[in-house]
Structure formats: structure tokens, C-alpha cells
Predict the structure.
Amino acid sequence: MAPSTSSRLFAGLLVVLWSGRLYSANGCFSSIISFGDSIADTGNAKYLASIYDDVRFLCVPPYGQNFIGQSTGRCSNGRLIIDFLAEILGLPLIPPYFSIKGSGSVAALRQGVNYAVAGSTAMNSSFVEARCNGCVVLNGSLEVQLAWFKQSLPFICGNATSSDCRNFIGRSLILMGEIGGNDYNLPLTTGRPIDEVQSYVPLVVDTIVSAINELIDMGAQTLVVPGNFPIGCFPSYLTIGVSDKEGYDPITGCLTKLNEFSEYHNKMLRIKLNKIQELNPNVVVIYADYYNAAMQIYHSPDKYGFTNGTFKACCGCGGPFNYKATERCGDVSMILCDEPDKYVSWDGVHLTEAAYKLISKSLFQGQYTMPEFRSICPRTSTSEGIGKSSI
Ligand SMILES: *[C@@H]1O[C@H](CO)[C@@H](O)[C@H](O)[C@H]1NC(C)=O
Ligand SMILES: *[C@@H]1O[C@H](CO)[C@@H](O)[C@H](O)[C@H]1NC(C)=O
Ligand SMILES: *[C@@H]1O[C@H](CO)[C@@H](O)[C@H](O)[C@H]1NC(C)=O
Ligand SMILES: *[C@@H]1O[C@H](CO)[C@@H](O)[C@H](O)[C@H]1NC(C)=O
């Protein structure tokens, strides 16, 4: 009965292989573990507000107005890049860690957990506070987020050094960022010269690199590391502006020096990521090019349906870009647009769901990740693309 024995053996092998590989609905990862700031925060700041008594980052209505009518604390009108990524991977929406902490429903964290918190920085809060004219920085730096992660591991997978935890981390997609943007935004918008802020870049990048190395030591196998956005195209910076016409890119209208600043950060980050990849050949480190994925829109806004506002925020309190530093989206004097899908910027600092959706497609089903995400998780390329109303 050799054939049936071998076919039974073969079937057994298949089960083993499949049980090891069938992680999410599309078979790539069992969960997403996310660190970052408001670009990826799915609600932590909202939960932390009561602790920090800081209302700047709550993202309450009209934030989330297109997210099945809910305010989730996401800093957009709807879904974020991390939501589209979860959808592509066939995973549920990634819950904010603080919505579950202490609730006893830690099983929910096994399919993903988000430590990103709006307003956070890569460097510790005292470093940034010393450089932003007395502003208050949320105590949620990358180091703090990693500490939250380590504190929560016993509830998710047991002893952090156990094989269960290493497997949990290894089968997860780690989304490391975007982080570091606020390390620059806070000094730049409180009067620090760009040349000085540029000198923080190596420190910020090294802090991100340390967090990545620590996660690799804990068993991380696949990491997506986003760069910074073209901040020179953001209404917040365009409102500050510059006095000379030469300061604006003649094609896009964005602020040249600020975009060059983002590109500099991204270049430094990529050099370090290549080094990490070299030293860890069994790990996959994927750079996510948020900058160029977003620049597509600023180069051809009409082509992508952003017919009303390339530079004007959908939600703000007036001014040429519908953005003011002192009054924000959600305040009483708010001017809210009718069709957010036709705007790139939601509130002057964060993008609309429509922009995040296009960027997500370009990243995870297109060419704006290095190596291409599709080569790591091929099934995304054969899916029909990101659904419009699947949430
Ligand atoms: C914050 O970071 C700076 C620079 O890395 C370091 O010198 C300082 O000791 C840190 N402060 C705290 C409170 O961790
Ligand atoms: C920030 O939070 C960390 C971890 O929760 C804590 O150890 C640290 O003392 C806090 N720092 C400040 C300045 O509150
Ligand atoms: C975790 O596991 C390691 C190695 O098995 C062991 O040395 C350590 O004591 C354990 N820690 C806890 C808190 O159980
Ligand atoms: C939006 O754009 C359309 C077409 O370009 C235009 O007709 C409409 O007036 C614009 N609406 C606003 C609020 O700017």
C-alpha cells in the first residue's frame, strides 16, 4: 500500500505546511503590529487624552465622519493607510492598544495591535520639548511605545523570550511608522530654522533604527518602514509660506526646501535600512515610499479626482489654505467642505481617506515599496484592489 501511505504522508505534510502558512485571509501575516504617530493611530490618543489632559490630538468629530459615521480617533475623515493594509491582508481593523488594555479581551490583539499615538515623536519628549519653544510633547516616543509593546506581550503570547512570542512577532507584519515627522514639525512650526532641524535627522533615524533592531532581536521577520511625506505640500506649511517665489516648486507649487528636507530624512533612513537588511539576511525590511506615492497626487491632482483642493484643507477655519495654527478642524469657526474625496488634505496636517487610499494602493499593490510588497505577499496583486465599502 505504498501509494496510499505516501499520499497520507503527503497530506500530513500539506497540513503542516498550510497550518504554518495560513495566517490571514490572504495567507501572508497573522497580524499587524504598528508603531508611529497620527498617520497610523487608530485611536490611542483618544484613550490617552484622559491621562495626558491634552486635547490637541484627539481627532474627534468631524474627524471620522466618513468612517461609518464614527469618531474613532483616527486623524482623517475616514480610513488610514494601516486600515487599507489590514484590508489587503484580510485582517480585521487593527485595534488601538489602549482600547483593549485592561479590558480582558486580549485575544483580539493576536490579529493585530497598534501602539501608534497621535502627536508622538521618535525621540523622547524632553528632547523635542527643548526644541519647540516650550511646547508640550506627548510622552509616547518610540521608546515608550516599545515599552508598551513589551508590557503587553505576556497577555498576548506569554513570556517575551518564549517561542510562542517569537513566533507571534515573526508571523506579524511590523509597521514601523511613519514616525519622526513630529520631531521636525514641532521645531519647524515654532520657529527653529530648517538648517538646525536638519541636524536632528541622524538622531531621529538612529532612534528608528534602534527600535527596528530591538524588534528583530525579539523575532521580527518582516518590517515595513515608511519615510516622511512631502511636507512642503501640506497646507500647514504653505500657510507659513516663504517670501520668495523661488521657494515654490514651479510645477507642483509645493515648498521646495521642506520637500527637500523630507527627502533628506528619507535618504538617511534608507541608507540605514539597507545596512539592517545586509546584517539580517533572513529578515525582510521594506521601505515604504510615502513621499513619492503622495507626490503622484501633487503632480496630477485632477487625474486622481482631487479636483477641488490640492492645497486647501477640507476641514479648517479659513485662510488661503483653510488652515490656521490657532484654530483647527473641529473648532466652532470651522469651515467643512462638502466633498472630502475631492481634497488631498483633510485638516491641513493629515490627508483625506481618498488620498490615503490612493497611496495605499500605490504602496501595497504598486511600485512604491522597496522591495515591492507584492513580491513578499503576492496575493495582493491578484486581488481586485481595495474595496470601496467593505468596512
Ligand atoms: C532623551 O534623549 C536624549 C537624546 O538621546 C538623551 O540625552 C536624554 O537622556 C533622554 N532623556 C530621557 C528622560 O530619557
Ligand atoms: C513617560 O512614560 C514612561 C513609560 O510609561 C515613563 O517611564 C516615564 O517616566 C515618562 N516620562 C515622563 C517625562 O513623564
Ligand atoms: C522567560 O523565559 C526565559 C527563557 O526560557 C527565562 O529565562 C525567564 O526566566 C522567563 N521569564 C519569565 C518572566 O518567566
Ligand atoms: C469643486 O470643483 C468643482 C469642479 O471643478 C466646482 O464646480 C465646484 O464649485 C468646486 N467646489 C468648491 C467648494 O470649491
In short: The domain at 5-228+241-286 is CATH 3.40.50 (Rossmann fold). The pocket of 2-acetamido-2-deoxy-beta-D-glucopyranose (ligand 2) is lined by residues 125, 139, 144, 147 (CB under 6 Å). The CA atoms of residues 58 and 361 lie 27 Å apart. DSSP finds 16 helices and eight strands in the chain.
